[in-house]
Known about the structure:
Number of strands: 25
Shape: globular
Distance between the termini: 30 Å
Number of helices: 16
Largest sheet: 9 strands, mixed
Oligomer: single chain
Helix content: 25-40%
Amino acid sequence: xxxxxxxxxxxxxxxxxxxACTPAPFDVLLRGGRVLDGSGAPATVADVGIRDGRIVxxxxxxxxxxADTVDVTGHVVAPGFIDPHxxxxxxxxxxxxxxxxxxxGITTIVDGNDGSSPLPLGPxxxxxxxxxxxxxxALFVGHGSVRRQVMGxxxxxxxxxxxxxxxxxxxxxxADGAVGLSSGLFYVPxxxxxxxxxxxxxxxAHAAGGIYSSHMRNEDDSVLAAVTETLRIxxxxxxxxxxxxxxxxxxxxxxRTVQSLALMREARDAGVTVAFxxxxxxxxxxxxxxxxxxxxxxxxxLEGHLARAATRQRVLDEMQAFVAMRFSNDPSKIQLxxxxxxxxxxxxxxxxxxxxxxxxxxPEAISALILELVRxxxxxxxxxSFDEGDVERLLASPYGMIGSDGALVAFGVSSPHPRAYGTxxxxxxxxxxxxxxxxxxxxxxxxxxxxASMLGLADRGRLQPGAxxxxxxxxPATVADRATFEAPHQYPVGIPHVFxxxxxxxxNGEVTGARPxxxxxxxxxxxx
Length: 528
């Protein structure tokens, strides 16, 4: 892109018949940084000039001027990080600056994951566009939300009429601007859907240019079958497939990422577009009710099953089998994050609760406590059940990208998973600088151009003239996460500046309060 010129005719120039032209000043000029363009190519030392929300020049910009010049010598300048898996939409109205996410360098968040999204999508996106938020926001349409609207939490296949109604909802959501279809097959009601239902709905999303993102049906004993099912959906429809937060739970399943990556390689060789996102931790975060078997929660029938001796025992048996497989019957591996009915439980493990009650640890005591918590209103919990070897193996795979699976949180409230504060700086600090599992260039690619390409986000994810000026500036020598499972409310270090559309949302390590984010709609968006 050629620089804009400011031209004026001086008296001398008029005498000579010439015009005097000088390049226009920039709005923002980042001087002397190591530019990583997001492609995976090595860094180059260059200046970056921004005007009207876009990158206009990169190179040695000499004595060029700007309204705001920032010396970033010794720092990396990269495209803003695009997080393909977040859970922040519910709180964006309350926390529009999205502090815990933008401080990580995240400039675009994608919500509607795990099969859960607003319906209808159009009015929500229209209202979101009026909220004035710091990051850009895109949404999936959730299969679970679609199924629930048409047939509640029924544990059965859809009728032809019900399937047609679900297809219509997905078609409308894609026209409204969804970037694709997400599923949460581990959760009710998604767990009750046969593969054929997902194939039918994925075809609708694919016809509108969307992708299919899935929290798979299983992430432990049957993880390979779940990967195979996900790949089948991509193979039969042609839709690009993104496996959400790929991981493998339960000690006896550690190492199965070797086979899951082999399945992806075979599918890619056969023409299926498949990738995965991951967060760099050995613990997950979801509702503690997920330990209760899905069949027992169909049609809101849990209380009825617990009231009958035969089905109550089946519920307890399956819960105890899951806890044994995932956590080796160790209640200290289940840490409560938030219980709406009792704020004092946040941060405590089930072992802590049992000890306070002077109750001996046993499979029966653990399952009884889980049922009690669910029946009192439910809790979200952190589950420690994954292997560091699998985390590093997935990070080393070129098929992956980074996604926080993080919530938008209020500082100091409850005890969230540290991924909400530290996912991206943890990759850059621990796994790039300290453990050298992945190169800096490749890590930035996984955070920028890879998700932008998969999601169809034009003009983002690459640092080049003409692109939207979503940028992050970080110090590769000091960038690090500080949030822990014991003390999660800690912002990262080493990320001094973050820009969205050329506007600083983080400056000198502090949130500015600016809210330049926009709603990003998918390729299937219908013309107004």
